[in-house]
Protein: 7-carboxy-7-deazaguanine synthase
Organism: Prevotella communis
Amino acid sequence: MRVNNIFYSLQGEGRNTGRAAVFIRFAGCNLRCSFCDTEFESYREMNNEEIMAEVEALSPQPSAIKPLIVLTGGEPTLQVDEAFVDFLHQHGYEVAMESNGTRPAPQNLDWLTVSPKQKPVHQRCSEVKVVFTDAEHVSDFELEADYYYLQPCDTGDPERNKVITQACVEYIKQHPKWRLSLQTHKLIDIE
């Protein structure tokens, strides 16, 4: 597999915010979103055992509870299959994936976050996380989920971000099905 990075931190977004997690960031994406804050073109070729060795080295030892594994990218569905998820489960890990929703995800995931940028192929996921730029496009990305989050787009411009965040809050107040998701990892300056 083409792995960009493996690191241990806290989940910064969505329902699992604040949870300790080992992130496996896969290289490559089938979309080119202008607001993407991830460098995912560089990578190392790694097999399952090499990935697990890094995951285990990062996980707290000894611990009765293992951290969540978050498969992210790039777009992890370009590489991850059910056999790899089974491999992680066999080592005692709960497995979450963050996907843009344009390709089918493995069915044996414990948690699936879809952050759609175009019409998703998924009919069902654990949570939908829409990057909010304006109210006009939110309904384009609705699909069936347990939780619905809007995340204000980080444009890199503090003044523009403030306008987007205020509009996002107003939208949620008018549409209470949605919840606010902030990128807390950026707010507390962690990876």
User: Anything to note?
Assistant: Residues 3 and 143 are 29 Å apart (CA to CA). Residues 2-187 form a domain with the TIM Barrel fold (CATH 3.20.20.70). Residues 158-174 form the longest helix (17 residues).
